[in-house]
Specification:
Blueprint (H helix, E strand, L loop, with lengths): L6 H4 L11 E8 L8 H20 L3 H19 L4 E7 L2 E4 L2 E4 L3 E9 L2 E8 L7 E4 L5 H8 L13 H8 L3
Antiparallel strand pairs: 1-2, 2-3, 3-4, 5-6, 6-7
Helix pairs in contact: 2-3
Length: 172
């Protein structure tokens, strides 16, 4: 017995891929860099040495060791200058340098305004992952908001993290 194809099976057409369209692009620093003077390192060094001595006196050996390791890592990171990256928002997602993040891998976005910059934060859909942060540079916030709202919900109640505030205060 031959089965006849239904009209819905006959009308199936191959799905056309929508080409990626650049909606806006710009270049900006990957993060805000604060130039550090020799006095900055002197004060930080004195703080670390005093704290190290206190930890040794109270026999907190592991904490003293961890302090030295953390201080060394922070010193190395303080020397690294940011790269200027190319940012692009398309109809398919966001591109940061050579990395692409499709909209289906992002939950939402929000803006964080600090005294020295404005950044866009994206919340990934993965449970355990850090927000993706983009510096706006000289691009207008409203222009970006208008584009992104077509693809992602905006969180308006987000504030700068305490760690980010502390790092900004110590100019790190």
């Amino acid at each position: 017995m031959a089965q006849s194809k239904t009209s819905s099976e006959n009308s199936k057409k191959p799905v056309q891929k929508v080409p990626e369209k650049n909606l806006i692009s710009w270049s900006a620093s990957e993060y805000i860099y604060y130039e550090k003077t020799p006095q900055y390192y002197l004060i930080a060094g004195i703080f670390v040495v005093v704290l190290f001595i206190i930890l040794i006196i109270i026999k907190e050996w592991m904490t003293a060791f961890a302090l030295i390791v953390i201080a060394a890592v922070l010193y190395i990171f303080s020397q690294k200058k940011p790269q200027v990256l190319k940012y692009k928002i398309t109809n398919k997602g966001i591109n940061i340098g050579t990395n692409s993040y499709p909209y289906n891998q992002l939950k939402s976005f929000w803006f964080i305004e600090s005294p020295s910059s404005i950044s866009i934060h994206f919340e990934p859909t993965k449970r355990i992952s850090w927000p993706i942060i983009i510096q706006l540079g000289n691009i207008k916030q409203e222009k970006i908001r208008k584009i992104l709202k077509k693809y992602l919900p905006e969180k308006t109640d987000q504030k700068e993290d305490y760690i980010d505030k502390i790092f900004r205060m110590i100019r790190f």
